[in-house]
Amino acid sequence: MPGGGAQRIRAGVPAAGRIGRVSRVDGIHDLGGMQGFGAVAHSPAEPVFHERWEATARALLEGVAAAVQASGGEFRHSIERMDPGHYLTSSYYEHWLTGAATLAVEHGLVTREELEARAGGRFPLSGPAHARPVADAGPGVSEPRFAPGDRVRVREWHPPGHTRCPRYVRGKEGVVVRLDGTHSVPDIEAHSPARRYEPTYSVRFDAASLWRDGQRGVLVHVDLWDSYLEPA
Amino acid sequence: MSGDVHHPAPTAPVEHRAAALEALLTERGLVPEGYIEEATRRYETEIGPMNGAKVVARAWTDPAYRRRLLEDGTAAIAELGFGGQEGAHVVVVENTPAVHNVIVCTLCSCYPWPILGLPPAWYKDPPYRARMVREPWTLLAEMGCELPEDMEIRVWDSSAEVRYLVLPQRPPGTEGKTEAELAGLVTRDSMIGVARL
Predict the structure, then answer these.
(1) Contact A53 B39 (CB under 8 A)
(2) CATH tag, B48-192
(3) Is the pTM of this model over 0.90?
(4) Same domain for A221 and A164?
(5) Is B162 helix (H, G, I), strand (E, B) or coil?
């Protein structure tokens, strides 16, 4: 059974069976360790914006997020809910544009019909959020449960909404190397005005424990909220 | 939904979609005049890797500053006047002859904006985010960063609130250089950890 933090998050997020149709659980954005992508299109220098619409898209998502008072979690989740095919075949700033338009429609600033009429064609938006709003975020955690040097295990679960726990470390054991203060839990803030604050930790994983083909001499560090962890 | 399942309308070009959203929000008074231009100007001229390069050069020339930087990156970086959005919690990780550090964000594209600017396209694209946590030796070599075989690689996935900066090793043969000259040697890639100097 996971620790107390696990139960607190679970209390706020319904089990998949209660949500009705869950079309997506783990978002396409969660890319760590996925294979088959090929070479990195690396360039040592490039313009900040390649085209003007990129700068527009970037500013619009920040502007919309501010106008609707979106939390960082809601902001990120507006992109994570994109259709996976669209996500993988579109550039970073198209993600931002899609997130901006999605938040603007969901918060009633514009309608999809207005956007499509003005754009002169289809305007793909992100899919609906599947996690329900959290009425009671539960008490915050002021005292860290873990200290540097402690062995921890990442909870193996697949929440229906936003999370900052990458799939590739779920169920894996690591060692806490740093405590980073207390921060709002993204899984709560993405779906609700409620907030809960918990410590975050940097957790070190030996690559050999993460991947069957883990490379030698590699330590991977992932920053995780208290609720994502249990004692190992 | 526009169109129907059998005959969906074509997707509008992305620049038309951006213009449509901008126009509708502007008409409703939700985008202040000059907002987009000002945000763009700041990231094109004021905020970029030249800021991080100053931090690195100071750490190379001032041992007390280096200690403060490794102990509390955010505060030491603020001493040089840098901070703000995506820079509120900075941890600096130091390269040594035995350890090479590299940063990534597998979930999105988290990056220390005040000191490195906005991330380059390749940092945000799927291949880098997918591969750096799984095969860093292979990927670094592909990107031209060859490391000694006995080196330890430490990958930092920026999955919560901390943003990372790699402190590269000072290149040999730079003893006589000034702090400003040293800053000129520091590349963006060396502060991400995909290059050595």
Answers:
(1) no
(2) 3.90.330.10
(3) yes
(4) yes
(5) coil
Q: At A180, which CATH number?
A: 2.30.30.50
CA-wise closest residue to A77 among A106, A108, A38, A118:
A106
Query: Is the Cβ of B49 closer than 8 Å to some Cβ of chain A?
Result: no
Do A108 and A75 share a structural domain? Answer: yes
Residue range A177-227, pLDDT digits in tens: 999 999 999 999 999 999 999 999 999 999 999 999 999 999 999 999 999
Residue A16 belongs to some domain of the structure:
no
Q: How far is B141 from chain A (nearest CA, A)?
A: 11
Model pLDDT for residues B72-125, shown as the tens digit of each residue? 999 999 999 999 999 999 999 999 999 999 999 999 999 999 999 999 999 999
Q: Which residues constitute the domain of residue A221?
A: 146-231
How far apart are the CA of B12 and the nearest CA of chain A, in angstroms? Answer: 4
Give the integer Cα–Cα distance in Å for B186 and B170.
9
In terms of phi and psi (left: phi > 0; alpha: psi -120 to 50; beta: otherwise), the region of A124 is beta
pLDDT above 60 (res A17)? no
ipTM: 0.94
Q: Judge whether residue A142 has pLDDT over 90.
A: no
Q: Where are chain B's structural domains?
A: 14-44, 48-192
Spatial distance between the Cα atoms of B93 and B73, rounded to a whole number of angstroms? 9
| Distances A104 to A27, A69, B21, B28 between C-alpha atoms, Å | 21, 11, 9, 12
Q: What is the pLDDT of residues B19-70, one digit of tens each?
A: 999 999 999 999 888 989 998 999 999 999 999 999 999 999 999 999 999 9
Residues in chain B closer than 8 A to A66 (CB atoms):
none
